[in-house]
Amino acid sequence: MSTPAEIPFPRFEQIPENYRIAPFDQREYLVDGELRGWEGPIQEAISPVCLQTEEGLKPFRLGSFPSMTTAEALQAVDAADRAWDSGSGRWPTMPLADRIRCFEDFTQAMVSRREEVARLLMWEVGKTWKDSCKEFDRTVDYIRETLDAVKELDRASSRFSAHEGILAQVRRAPLGVTLCMGPFNYPLNETCTTLIPALLMGNPVIFKPSRPGSLVFGPLLQAFRDAFPPGVVNAVYGSGARVVGPMMESGRISCLAFIGSTRAADLLKTQHPAPHRLRSCLGLGAKNPAIILPDADLDLAVRECVSGSLSFNGQRCTALKIIFVHQSVADDFVARMAQAVSALRVGMPWEEGVSITPLPEAGKPEELQGLVQDACRTGAEVVNPGGGRTLATLFWPALLSPVGPAARVYHEEQFGPVVPVVPFADVAEPIRYLVESPYGQQASLFGQDPEGLARLIDPLVNQVCRLNLNSQCQRGPDVLPFTGRKDSAEGTLSVSDALRVFSIRTLVAARESASNKAILADILRERRSAFLSTDFLF
């Protein structure tokens, strides 16, 4: 039994005042340009941070948010559908320059809520204070970079072409009502990487925050309301069965942006009555491997693998989730890795230098412990002292070696601080693993021989969509494509790619006659159309 001095969880009075938070009971939701009061059932928001009390460890009640019903969800669909108005609504026909001004107003208002949103991030999902601020700042940067990218896209299409007697202007047009659903691990950033480009391209949006992560958007609802026309941005809360299913079944969702599990994505798509008409942008599961070759720089490999597998507790789709290491260097690598993992600090998210923080998913420590026990039954060991220990919502990272195909963690995405190491004799083994895996997001390759690396690059790039040389898997920079093969993704996200995902190439064409030239010249000169335009956006 741990004594209070050994328990990382604090008493409330031990929390530094600048990191404390008062319960945030959200009683409003945004639909049709209105912040509507909510008096119905609520969902409690419980922080992964527990507190020491006289009765023992108690979860900290962070607040609550609406648990909406099907009726409210369909009201959001109605509002977004009115804003779309079969493509004739104010937002989809608004000149791009005016939409950009709406975003500039929103971004200015968003920045003013930085501390409040970052504090909610820290308390609601257990992210360190530093990383919570980083997620907020990265999201603001993403918005600004997207505005620059859409201007560049517009400039490239602000001209007419003439081919075979046909004059044409090709631009990108919106798709329709878009449903955005982000994940709990990056509830602000990942939601905005779909919501922002979808909106910017002229699509009215409904977004459902993740749980946990629902409170994060509460302070931003007023900014959405004030910056955008009624019905253009709508927020719904509640269980997926009550709110998401009926929205999909309505058939009025034209585009689905979802980041989560493959199983959930498949269910959502089948709920739509015309799935062939549904454009989907999906970020799904991953089991990204690292491959450590005999000539790898082990200091570098260990540093990158520790960060890649355990940053934010390994709760990232881009995390390294299995490490293949050549048997000639396996003992040395594992020893160094165990030492590095043991040096990671376990504690509260506001503490300086902390690496491992409480897990926000209910039952996650027990789930991870089950994976560790299963691996040990099949021949692996926990090689770092204290690895796999649990206390309430904390799980001490576990480095497992040697792991083989009989272990569940060899195949399953653990999404937490469990690191399986697989020694191999022939590089064909990790390549076969990638070929047979249902996932195909990323891989990391560590080695120093250019010829040997080149022989692996060609087959591996046909299995994953990003191959990282001597570095961990990651999403950024945001200007680079982010996608996956097989069950890992559908559609491509980046600052510029996302603008294309949430739009479709559309053109106006006319025969190159004197009368048509005169008509087009008049439309352009008098600025009669937002679509037909040769304006240059600065």
Give a short synopsis of this structure.
With 538 residues, this protein is an alpha/beta fold. The chain is built from 16 helices and 25 strands.
Descriptive overview:
With 538 residues, this protein is an alpha/beta fold. It folds into 2 domains: 31-283, Aldehyde Dehydrogenase, Chain A, domain 1, CATH 3.40.605; 288-480, Aldehyde Dehydrogenase, Chain A, domain 2 (3-Layer(aba) Sandwich). Helix content is 36%, strand content 22%. The protein contains 16 helices and 25 strands. The strands form 7 sheets. A 7-stranded mixed β-sheet has the order 15-18-19-14-13-21-22, with helices on both faces. Strand 4 and strand 5 form a beta hairpin. Helix 2 packs antiparallel against helix 4 (129-156), helix 4 (129-156) packs parallel to helix 5 and helix 9 (298-310) crosses helix 10 (327-342). The chain is globular and about 80 Å long. The relative contact order is 0.13.
Q: What topology does this entry show?
A:
Blueprint: E1 24-25, E2 28-31, E3 34-37, E4 42-53, E5 56-66, H1 70-84, H2 96-111, H3 114-125, H4 129-156, E6 161-163, E7 166-174, E8 178-181, H5 189-200, E9 205-208, H6 221-227, E10 233-235, H7 240-249, E11 255-259, H8 262-271, E12 279-283, E13 288-292, H9 298-310, E14 320-326, H10 327-342, H11 364-377, E15 381-382, E16 390-391, E17 394-395, E18 398-401, H12 408-411, E19 418-424, H13 428-436, E20 439-440, E21 442-446, H14 450-460, E22 466-469, E23 485-486, E24 489-490, H15 497-501, E25 503-511, H16 514-525
Parallel strand pairs: 1-5, 8-9, 8-11, 9-10, 11-12, 13-14, 13-21, 14-19, 18-19, 21-22
Antiparallel strand pairs: 2-3, 4-5, 6-7, 7-25, 12-24, 15-18, 16-17, 20-23
Helix pairs in contact: 1-7, 2-4, 2-6, 3-4, 4-5, 9-10
